[in-house]
Amino acid sequence: MSENVADMVRDDRPIDSVFWGDGDKCFVVGHESVSKIVAYYENGQMAGVPWFAIYVGDVLVARKCAHGCSVHYHISQRPQTAERPAPIGDEG
């Protein structure tokens, strides 16, 4: 099955948190005054390199390379699923 998945920078969903596998740091919106996390590109030698901008209020307080990270998105509504069966006793 093939899905069209936008890269991090083009994905318009709000980022809830980012974690790095090396245990170096994590940023979570709502903790330690973090107000938003934005993915963007910095120039690399041959292509754009994804980075994160970390904000407290409207102030940019940190930039971290996205290499080796895990991104979690904010889910504002229940995701759509395949048709669910009716609860037992509610067949009609």
Structural features, described:
The structure is a single chain. With 92 residues, this protein is mainly beta. It is 0% helix and 41% strand. The protein contains no helices and six strands. It has strands at 15-20, 26-28, 36-43, 48-56, 59-65, 69-73. The strands form two sheets. It has a three-stranded antiparallel sheet with strand order 2-1-6, with no helix packed on it. The two termini are 34 Å apart.
Strand order of the largest sheet: 2-1-6
Largest pleated sheet: 3 strands, antiparallel
What proportion of the residues form beta strands (DSSP E)? Answer: 35-45%
* Count of helical stretches: 0
Helical percent range?
under 10%
Radius of gyration: 18 Å
**What is the quaternary state of this protein?**
single chain
- Distance from N terminus to C terminus (CA atoms, Å) equals 34 Å
Contiguous low-pLDDT stretches (5 residues minimum) are none
Provide the fold topology.
Layout: E1 15-20, E2 26-28, E3 36-43, E4 48-56, E5 59-65, E6 69-73
Antiparallel strand pairs: 1-2, 1-6, 3-4, 4-5
Task: Please supply descriptive tags for the structure shown above.
mainly beta, 92 residues, 3-stranded antiparallel β-sheet, 0% helix, single chain, globular
Concise structural overview:
With 92 residues, the chain is mostly beta strands. It has strands at 15-20, 26-28, 36-43, 48-56, 59-65, 69-73. The strands form two sheets. It has a three-stranded antiparallel sheet, with no helix packed on it. It has a three-stranded antiparallel sheet with strand order 3-4-5, with no helix packed on it.
